[in-house]
Amino acid sequence: MSTESTRAQREKYTSAITLSDMEIFIFPELLYSLLLANIMSPRIWAWRDDPWFKDIERMKPYRRILRLKQFIMDRYEFNLDLDTWGLTRKEVELARFRGIVDEETLSRSNALFGYEGDKYYFDIDIRRHFGLDKYTSDVIPYWKTETVEAMDAFCFRDGYQQGAGECVSLSTLYAAALFIVCGIPLEDIYLIATPLHSQNFVDVREGVLTNNRRIVTKNMWFNGTEITYKAQRALRNEQITIVAHQSGYIHAVYPVATMAAEAYAHFKNRLQAFLVTDINAEIVANFLRQQSHLQSCFQVVGQCHGKTRYIPAERLYAYEHNSPYRVSDGTREKLLCEIEEDEYYTDPIPGRISMNMFEDFFKQHRIDLNKPDDLVRLRDQFQCNNARGDEILEDLIAFCRVTPRFPDTDASKQFTQTVPPLAITPDMDRTAIIAALEAARDQSPVADLAFYAYRDLTRTDWQPFLQAAWERNPVSVEAAQKLSLAEVEAQLRHWPEASIYDGPRLAQPDEVWNFQRGDGLEKALCLANIARHVHQAAIGQLTVTPDEARIEINGQSHAFASRKKLTYTG
Questions:
Q1: Domain ranges of the chain
Q2: pTM, 2 dp
């Protein structure tokens, strides 16, 4: 740990243990440190031996990403249970970070401190949407990010059959697996955080966005489906708060960016290109799939028993739900064949625009969204009885062009890359990568913090881990409110002697309690945390030997067998 003895430095290192969304917002280095911790983990390296990835090295990068997506879809759930990691209070967090970041900054950029985003989030009442409304304005939940080990351990919780994690957990899991399994260089992976979401942009072909368990290609971004619409929510409506990269990071609030300026410029250009498409007949049909309230302005012409027939667009889109065929592509004729004959009209439906005419229109006209004359020409095609041509055009342009709010809107943003990019590449094995990160620790705070996120107590100072254990593990405390200390100890001893972390790496008390298992050392710390907060007990010396952990509580010694092979006295 750095010798810099400031409160901010201490909080940063203890935050690397708990990794709440709020801590990552305040200390943006932690986002990439979590990615590196997952890259060091043996869990993801073991995926490469799974039969699902056999011969993956023969595939092109895009096909590798598709294989990875299905693997993650099959093994992880998206979890946004606000009670998983317990509650805290605004006043506690504000006191903790006073002098590091102010409340006004937090409220503009963090959902737990009143963030509502723009009009979209006001409309959906963001606190109710995410379940925050059940808490008072002062009581707030922790949104903690899970390492891959904690994600895997969700299978031990009631109601879960497999691994799980929230959006930051899934994004850093994806990024690590893209590097380890798919061989995507870190320089091509950009981690993107907004106040309510985290995802990655992968610089492969036209670009790929990871979004929780799924991926979104450029074609998918403009397909108009409900799943894609939800995936677009963050980039359409939120400020990008953090972009993290192998070369560093940029943060919307802080004036200094550590990311290489050329890497950031490349990212902006590539992401912006991903978010814009030309307008053609297929895009118009995709747009109407999403904007279903406008479908009543359109009709589709088809053939039924050799005769020309007409069907309202909303009826044809309704048939899509139970069909492999689509209104928007070359399978439309097959979809029309599935329509019941009594759905058709024998004559054109008055006042409705024919979607068929767009095929001919776009063969003759290439529409440039930046040219007013082109937009007028396109608007003229959207004339119907509802006189909604201007509305349709405005919504279509918004569908085809998303302008993200990048974190460099402040002209005074300074790009100061003081640390060279971490020298780890996909052709290195896990041992070599850990050695390279170890060698970089003195120069690179991100690499140093990664070992704290990795929870390796042979390579880190114990104090940040213990501070986090005593201060930010409320689940075990709340669950044990009505239990005597003897009952708590009996419960802990009853649970399996199995840590969710391998080797000399340790779980925090709430991980022990949530997943109902742990090494004896982890159980001793969980017992001490409950004794401290529930029974106001005096916690004495912690003595750890390679095969035992002993903690003094109110002068009485409690010993647990341990397999962690650690040594500590304090």
A1: 7-276+405-454, 281-400, 473-569
A2: 0.92
